[in-house]
Design goal:
Blueprint: H1 4-16, E1 27-35, E2 42-45, H2 46-58, E3 61-73, E4 78-89, E5 102-110, E6 113-120, H3 123-130
Parallel strand pairs: 1-6
Antiparallel strand pairs: 1-2, 3-4, 4-5, 5-6
Length: about 140
C-alpha cells in the first residue's frame, strides 16, 4: 500500500502528465526548486521562483511531458520518481524521445507539502547524488 507521500506525488504527476502545470496547491510557499542538470540548471526559492524556473524550462518545449515510470519512497520524507520526457524543442525541433530523455524528480515532503523539488534530466546523476546504484531503477520501486 502506498504511503501518503507517494499518493501526493502521484496526484501531482496525474496533472503534469496531462500538461497541467498550473496548480501548486501541493507546494510549500517557501519551496526550494532545483533543476540539477539539463539545458539550464539553477535553483529558485518560493512559489514565484518555482514558477519562473518551470516557465523558463517549459517555454523551450512544445507539449513537454514528464511521464512517470516508477515511484520509489526513499524514506519518510523523500519520494523519487523515475520519468521519461516527451516533447519537441521549439527552437531545435528536437524530439525528446530521440535523445532518450530519462530523468528523475526528487520530492522532499513534510506535513503534506512539497518543501523541495529537484528535477534531474539525467537519471544516472540522480542515482549518483542519492548514493544509489544503477539497479535503483528496478529495485524497491512502487508502481
Amino acid at each position: 500500500m502506498a504511503s501518503a507521500n507517494v499518493d501526493l506525488v502521484r496526484s501531482i504527476f496525474d496533472e503534469w502528465q496531462h500538461g497541467d502545470f498550473d496548480s501548486a496547491a501541493w507546494a510549500d510557499p517557501c519551496i526550494a526548486f532545483v533543476l540539477a542538470d539539463g539545458p539550464s540548471p539553477g535553483s529558485w526559492e518560493g512559489l514565484d521562483g518555482m514558477i519562473e524556473g518551470w516557465r523558463d524550462f517549459l517555454g523551450a518545449w512544445q507539449h513537454w511531458r514528464g511521464e512517470a515510470e516508477h515511484y520509489r519512497e526513499l524514506d519518510g520524507e523523500r519520494v523519487l520518481v523515475l520519468i521519461h520526457g516527451t516533447g519537441r524543442g521549439k527552437a531545435s525541433g528536437l524530439d525528446a524521445a530521440q535523445v532518450r530523455s530519462e530523468g528523475a524528480n526528487l520530492f522532499h515532503i513534510s506535513g503534506g507539502r512539497v518543501k523541495r523539488l529537484v528535477v534531474y534530466f539525467n537519471r544516472e546523476r540522480a542515482f549518483t547524488d542519492l548514493g544509489l546504484g544503477p539497479e535503483a531503477g528496478a529495485a524497491d520501486v512502487r508502481d
